[in-house]
Amino acid sequence: MAPRYAPSLRSRLAPLLLLLQIGFIVIYAVYIEVLTHLLSLYYLLSFAEFQDVNVMVILGFGFLGTFLVRYGYSATGFNLLVAVMATQWAVILNGIESWYYRGKIRADLRSLVVAEMCAASALISIGALLGKTNPVHLVLIALLEVSGFVLNQWLLQTLLKVPAANSIMLLHIFGAFFGLALTWILFRKGSLQPFEKEKFDRQAGLFSMMASGIVQLEIQVQTLNYFNSVLVDHRSPWRKLGAVCSTYLALAVSAVTAAAVSMLSSPKGKLNPVHMQSFILAGGVAVGVSMSAVHQPWEAMTIGFTAAVLSTIVSRYLKTHMLLAFECHDTSALLSTHGLPGLLGWLAHLLLQIKACDDPTVAVRFAVFHICSLLITISLSLSMGIITGLLLKWNFWRPPQDNKCFDDQAFWEVGNQNFVFLKTNVELNIILSLHRKDQIS
């Protein structure tokens, strides 16, 4: 029997990318203006934070997906493609209000950072579909999800008066539930048994673990520091320092706790590399959602501890049940890494805010608005995920066959895989060295 080759995307992907990029260029030429007056100088001082967010979005999310033995090219390459397309689209959508009142969309470093965080919500979602889609699917997912996330921000800020930074940090919850809805709609019957190529070896797992341990720990601290600092007046450096300390402590406690719980829950008493690679980030996710209410180090450490315990246990015992009972094949443990820690951070924010409030009436009012913000976010993310999934079920987009899932050769001209991982390892070390030099300078 002749081998089944993956369907060519030449007639789908190339026209889609060229059409979108030309359209973006035209819109930017006509409607985008870069702020150059004195009011934007403050954002120039935040270039280091912009750089950290950019490295996390481009490298962090990409390298975390390299645990699949034959999907390293796609995990990093498609992550870059989705990130840059989604960021360009998010700048336009976030500037619609400015365009409506002033006729121009104003761009600066802050607008780029906000756009990249909107893109990060899409990168979180595609983790659930890692290896089971093609780049056409991913680009469409990014455009539709960023549209839904920007709409969610507008609803929260307009109807419930939620601060901008708080609505942005709900990206973990929005991205997780959007991705779960997608993987439910796009479920493949072949997922009931492990895919032939859905596996990782020591080399790929070590590289992905290094990405989470080195890149993510540093970048998460710097990234969450910037977004937490948005809530604080830039003339209050001691508050910024508190945000840095809380974020680092939550991540550190999360890493230690994930290792302990992983070993305790293992039948053989061994560490699970998937747990170590993913769930050390659970504390960073949870404390990022709740940071505006975190004022003491022990609060951040408690949140990090609880997030790691919850994520590790749920991943160990719930992932298989979700596949069998709800037909959700979550490749990257999306629910455990982002969804549940995000919900935990939301709950911690609610409890800490109520605890700090002296007026019961104000506390009840805050609780009602806080609960409504979560309900709107989950409802909109699930609705947009279902709509997007139904659109992607159309065979016109040429989804890969089951035997071509989790395989770079379906989309890339691949060479020696060992050489690729070795080369990328060296490149990562160079990037980290340059990054540290920039931070020191």
What is the secondary structure topology, with strand pairs?
Layout: H1 13-31, E1 32-34, H2 41-44, H3 47-64, H4 72-94, H5 96-102, E2 105-107, H6 109-126, H7 135-159, H8 164-168, H9 171-185, H10 202-229, H11 237-265, H12 273-278, H13 282-290, H14 297-326, H15 334-356, H16 360-392, H17 417-440
Parallel strand pairs: 1-2
Quick summary of this structure?
The protein has 441 residues and is mostly helical. Helix content is 72%, strand content 1%.
How many domains in all? 1
Fold-level CATH name:
Ammonium transporter fold
Number of helices: 17
**β-strand amount:** under 5%
Q: What is the residue-averaged pLDDT?
A: 78
At the fourth CATH level, what is the homologous superfamily? Ammonium transporter AmtB like domains
Shape: globular
| Proportion of residues in helical segments | over 70%
* CATH class descriptor name: Mainly Alpha
Gap between N and C termini, in Å?
Answer: 61 Å
As a whole number of angstroms, the C-alpha radius of gyration is 21 Å
* Uncertain parts: 227-233, 417-427
The SSE string, one letter per element, is HEHHHHEHHHHHHHHHHHH
Strand order of the largest sheet: 1-2
Largest sheet: 2 strands, parallel
Transmembrane segments: 12-32, 53-73, 79-100, 112-130, 136-156, 168-187, 241-264, 276-294, 300-319, 331-354, 366-392
Family: Belongs to the ammonium transporter (TC 2.A.49) family. Rh subfamily.
Pfam family, one: Ammonium_transp
GO molecular function: ammonium channel activity
